[in-house]
Every structure is written in C-alpha cells, then in structure tokens.
C-alpha cells in the first residue's frame, strides 16, 4: 500500500523536540521523520507554508527530499502581514518547481489573530493568485464557515481542498458541490469525534484526502505527542472503519485523489 500525507509541516517538527537544537540536529529530526514515513508506505508528502518567515524552510525541506513537495501561502493568523506587495511576492515563491499549491490560506474566527478585514483580503487575493497560476488551494477554515463558502463562491474557486476538516456536514456538502476535496486529519480518530466521523461517511471516497497536519493532532496512541507523517496510516484506518471498506481501499483512493489534485510527479 502507498499513502500520501497531503498536509504536514515537516519544517516545524524540530520545534517539538525538548531543548535547543543545532541546525544539523534539526535536519536529523526531519530526516528521521521522512524515513519513518517512507518505511510506513508514505510515498509523497506535501509541506505547506503559512508565514513569510517560514517559506525559506518550507522550500529547503522540499529541495532536500525527492518525495517532499511544498505549498506557499499566508495563513489567516498572519493576514495582517498581507500588503500591496504580497501578491507578487507570493507569486515569485510559487514559481519554485516543487510548489504544487497555494496554501494554507483561509479564515479563522476562533482566534482572530488577523483582523477579519485583512483575512478576507488575503484570502481573496491568494485565491486569485491560485487561479492565475492554475494551482489548487489548501483552505483553512475555523468558526467561519459561512464567510468561507461565500468567498470561495464569489472568487469562483473550484480547485482545492478543505484541509484538516472539522466542520459541519453542510460545509462539506457546500464545498463538495463547488468541486473541492475534503481532507481528514487525526481529529477523525479521536473518541469524541462522532459527528465528524458521521460527516466523513458522506464524503465520497473520490473526494477524500488524508493528512497528519504534523506536528499537531497526533492520533492515538500518540495523542498529545508530536505527530509525524508516518501516522497518516492511522487516519486511513479510521476512515476505512467509517466507510466499511478495507485499508487498501482508503490508501488507493486517497492516494489517487491527491495525485490528481496536486499533480505530484510520479517519475
């Protein structure tokens, strides 16, 4: 079986290790995580950016590993950093040959770290950039379902994924109707996630992706510890149970979906 972790922050993994790490030791932590993922059958990993400061590390990780690719975007928490020069600045980053998507982008009203006006502007302009470049978008949405759907519709967005999905069935249906994929993380494995598993059951397998969102949201038996791409198999196992199919079915379908959406090079 082969898997794709469609959303993991490999560049953030060293930050979860106790103590200060040298640059060499930080790379060693990433190296080990990548190797464990490959040993678990994870053939490709997509490492999205979320801040301007993070982009060099995101691209450096993608350059270092043949089966790790990148996405570039400004997270809604960082929306106040979006200015008149940002569109062209992000466009230049997206020209990197290992960048497969724009993301993660979106709206987050739970924390409101970025002003809502700035979040809307950054979200809209990044959707427009993705459309100009013909790239899929990776959308983060939290406590902002109505506005997320409205902006996606107004901007004509049809090509992307709602990542780390924890929303309502209505959100899933609305974005599926627009052509989006839905990606499930370790949250779907948590004991109290019955409603999310019920939603996952109605998401067609030809629109389902899996992700770890590492280093966050580790599934049991690793919950509360650092997450990493190898654990994406646990998400696949949970979805196999939800759909009443074999693990191989989830592995094959989610991999095919990610290959098609992000156009991972397969040779």
Based on the model shown, name its key terms:
single chain, 267 residues, 8-stranded parallel beta sheet
Task: Provide structural commentary.
Strand 6, helix 6 and strand 7 form a beta-alpha-beta unit. The two termini are 18 Å apart. Strands 1-2-3-4-5-6-7-8 form an eight-stranded parallel β-sheet. The mean pLDDT is 95. 42% of the residues lie in helices and 15% in strands. It contains nine helices and eight strands. Helix 8 crosses helix 9.
> Cα distance, first to last residue?
18 Å
Q: Please give the count of helices.
A: 9
How would you state the average pLDDT, rounded? Answer: 95
Largest sheet: 8 strands, parallel
Q: Judging from the principal axes of the Cα atoms, what is the shape?
A: globular
Q: Could you give the order of strands across the largest sheet?
A: 1-2-3-4-5-6-7-8
Low-confidence stretches: none
What is the CA-based Rg, rounded? 17 Å
């Amino acid at each position: 079986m082969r898997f794709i972790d469609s959303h993991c922050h490999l560049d953030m993994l060293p930050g979860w290790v106790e103590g200060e790490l040298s640059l060499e030791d930080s790379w060693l932590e990433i190296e080990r995580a990548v190797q464990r993922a490959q040993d678990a059958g994870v053939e490709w990993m997509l490492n999205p950016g979320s801040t301007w400061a993070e982009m060099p590390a995101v691209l450096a990780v993608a350059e270092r590993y043949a089966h790790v690719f990148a996405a570039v975007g400004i997270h809604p928490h960082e929306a106040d950093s979006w200015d008149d020069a940002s569109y062209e600045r992000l466009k230049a980053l997206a020209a990197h040959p290992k960048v497969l998507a724009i993301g993660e982008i979106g709206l987050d009203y739970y924390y409101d770290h970025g002003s809502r006006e700035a979040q809307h502007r950054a979200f809209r302009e990044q959707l427009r950039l993705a459309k100009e470049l013909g790239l899929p978008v990776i959308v983060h949405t939290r406590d902002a379902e109505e506005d997320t759907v409205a902006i996606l519709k107004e901007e004509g967005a049809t090509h992307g994924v709602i990542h780390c999905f924890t929303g309502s069935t209505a959100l899933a249906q609305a974005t599926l109707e627009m052509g989006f994929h839905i990606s499930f993380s370790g949250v779907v494995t948590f004991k109290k996630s019955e409603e999310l598993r019920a939603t996952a059951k109605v998401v067609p397998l030809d629109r389902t992706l899996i992700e770890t969102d590492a280093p966050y949201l580790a599934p049991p038996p690793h919950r509360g510890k650092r997450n990493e791409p190898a654990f994406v198999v646990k998400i696949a196992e949970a979805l196999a149970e939800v759909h009443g199919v074999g693990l191989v079915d989830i592995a094959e379908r989610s991999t095919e979906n990610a290959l098609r959406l992000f156009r991972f090079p397969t040779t």
